[in-house]
């Protein structure tokens, strides 16, 4: 199932996503599942890569001058040797050296986790696939927020998550769960 060894991408797991600005969120266990994957990757000394969103929008909770909002959440702290790619757009590939880094490290597959599904996770997943990386998206290690469309129709975070996963499935990524990934690794 997984290309060996895959890089673990942890996208924007930052304190600013706890701000009420974003609205209601689903999958409150996402960080716990990310930590399970991080622990396994660290045990195996596989590549762990973070993106850190530093917004250029002053009203964003992820604004680059707001030191609290841009910080990684306490339970998901990068360790020495783990690469961090700062960015200010949704894709972890735009304006960063992520693609070059993956190629230089001969990493052909990625396992994507992080926040939020409809923003950085979806965009990075699409680009990862378009750039030719074997892409796995861990559905219980990501989270979405409520959204309202241009016609004023409200969608719950769960609805947003389901639609995003449906659109990414097969076309851009293989959708997996944390336990599937961990079980696959254990049997390789």
Describe this structure in words.
With 188 residues, the protein is an alpha/beta fold. It has a single domain (7-186), classed as Isochorismatase-like (Rossmann fold, 3-Layer(aba) Sandwich), CATH 3.40.50.850. 32% of the residues lie in helices and 21% in strands. It contains six helices and eight strands. It has a six-stranded parallel β-sheet with strand order 3-2-1-4-5-8, sandwiched between helices. A two-stranded antiparallel ribbon has the order 6-7. The protein starts with 6 loop residues before the first strand and ends with a helix. The mean pLDDT is 95.
Q: What's the tally of helices?
A: 6
CATH superfamily: Isochorismatase-like
Name the overall outline.
Answer: globular
Uncertain runs with pLDDT below 50, 5 residues or more?
A: none
Summing up helix and strand content along with how strands pair, one would put the structural category as: alpha/beta
Rg:
16 Å
Strand proportion, as a percent range, falls in 15-25%
| Overall tally of domains | 1
In the CATH classification, which architecture applies? 3-Layer(aba) Sandwich
Predict the CATH topology.
Rossmann fold
Order of helices and strands: EHEHEHEHEEEHEH
CATH class placement = Alpha Beta
- Average pLDDT over all residues: 95
Q: Mind summarizing the main beta sheet?
A: 6 strands, parallel
Helix content: 25-40%
Oligomer: single chain
Measured between the Cα atoms of the first and last residue, the distance is: 10 Å
């Amino acid at each position: 199932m997984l290309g060996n060894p895959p890089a673990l991408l942890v996208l924007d797991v930052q304190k600013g996503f706890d701000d009420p600005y974003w609205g209601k969120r689903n999958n409150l266990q996402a960080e716990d599942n990310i930590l399970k994957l991080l622990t396994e990757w660290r045990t195996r000394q596989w590549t762990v890569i973070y993106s850190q969103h530093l917004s250029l929008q002053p009203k964003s909770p992820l604004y680059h001058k707001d030191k609290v909002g841009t910080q990684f959440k306490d339970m998901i702290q990068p360790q020495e040797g783990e690469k961090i790619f700062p960015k200010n757009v949704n894709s972890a590939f735009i304006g960063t050296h992520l693609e070059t880094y993956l190629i230089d490290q001969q990493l052909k597959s990625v396992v994507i986790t992080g926040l939020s599904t409809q923003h950085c996770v979806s965009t990075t997943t699409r680009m990862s696939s378009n750039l030719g990386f074997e892409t796995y998206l861990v559905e219980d290690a990501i989270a979405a927020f409520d959204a309202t469309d241009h016609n004023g129709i409200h969608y719950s975070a769960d609805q947003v998550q389901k639609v995003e996963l449906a659109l990414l499935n097969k076309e851009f990524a293989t959708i997996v769960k944390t336990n599937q990934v961990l079980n696959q690794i254990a049997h390789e």
